[in-house]
């Protein structure tokens, strides 16, 4: 390792992931994760319903897919709220100024 910046340095990527500030691209990503999860797991449930002669596994698959899609979106930092201008300061009671008596 020579201490040189990596390939992502200078390209505008930061610790929020590849979607940066979010917005439209993050919304489309969240939608596609959830819709894709519902589609894939519903098809798996439909196949199991046909094999086993049941009718409820497709619904369980759809719910599992929606939950899994939301989980993936959350893990990719797409559903978290943006930090305020003050950074990651807690939203509780403000601290007193440094020169005030305690």
From TrEMBL:
Region described as Disordered: 82-102
Regions of compositional bias (Pro residues) in chain numbering: 93-102
Keywords: Membrane, Transmembrane, Transmembrane helix
Listed transmembrane segments: 26-48, 54-72
Protein's name in the database: AtpZ/AtpI family protein
